[in-house]
Amino acid sequence: MICGHVNRLRRIPRAKAQHRLVRARHILCLCTSLLVSPHTLAAGFYLSEVGTPGSLGTAGVANPTNTYSADASWTNPAGMTGVEQDEILSGFQLLLPKNEFDSSVAQAGGSDGGNAGKVAAIPSFFYAKKLSERSRFGFSITAPLGGGLDYGDNFVGRYATIKALLQGVSISPSYAYQVNDRLSVGAGVSIIYTIYEQDIAINQAPIADGKVKFEDATDWGYQPFVGLTYQLSERALLGVVYRAEADVDLEGDLDFKNLAGPTPPADKVELSWDNPQLLEIGLRYSLSEDTTLFFNVDWEDWSAFSENQLAFVGGPLSPVVTLDRNWDDTWHVGVALARKLGDDRGYSLGLSYDSSPVDNDDRTIDLPADEQYKVSAAYAWKGKKKLDYAIGATLLYAGGGEVDQTSQGVRFKGEFDKNYILLLGGTLRYVF
Fold it and tell me: How many independent structural domains does the chain possess?
């Protein structure tokens, strides 16, 4: 009888413990239904503009046929064989977004979030060194991906996301070799440091919302790239660049706030996706000694990014969820013109289009990617001694971004009535 009494007492705390696990599992399941990803800045979230006149001032169209300056070390390493002297190119780019959501359905009430775009400052650095008549070494530091959205705690879609921030910095050594008078080849590898953060509200109706925060989720990864340039004629140059798929496996802190029930024991979060491979082809054609046309097309494998994975780590529960975003591959087309104004000045203009990676029915508010249109311009001039300067700008219209999403049992619907980004940049070039 004594043993039976003791066993009965033990069963009570087990039941309480089981109840806590059920509550924790419920909260974790709510969170895993909100699998995350960053804000878009390109067809997906690649950024073709790197703050230099050849990219920012042509909507990225001149990148694959860049044989003029040190930023070829990143845009197409084969192009470095056209750089005749050692040089450094330093750039700075400012992103000024205007992303305003306009809701038509908001079952949980709340605000539209105002301007959710986050201002970002992006420096860049490029170096090209002549090793011999045929070979070059290059080195670059860029931010090839990134962006952010902050809708605020009272956003109509807060149960999908409140805030999301992605930052990526790439360190890329590269090498180029001139095979003959027409053909040059090059290769490099981008070593990429990625950091991601996100806040999501937890629906606890009828009481106040809770919140889960993913903080300092970071990863070191790498992305190989190769390129070639081929002189088709005295006037025409072909450029081809391929960047391989890159695995992203982030690990960061998990923090719950204002929960009505027990806090889940998990304290770490793991996120993973694949940054897609891409193939870019460009053509440069000289109309005259002073005027050059540029064309480019590309294919980006965003269907590879479509599957995102999320896991919570710590305690007895470590659920893993995979979400298929139903993303498709995208394509890009662009045209640009560059014109010299004498020997010491010049300007460029560019236009480009990127298709949407996702249909309206599958688009989510944490990553409201849509088709994009860009118009760009840049102005460059020679300074004293061995310094050159350039300034440029790109206006990017990011589409309507229609969203009709249900998260944690709450539906919201709308589109972005203002959805554009102004990119301003400048560069300083020093020739040894």
Answer: 1
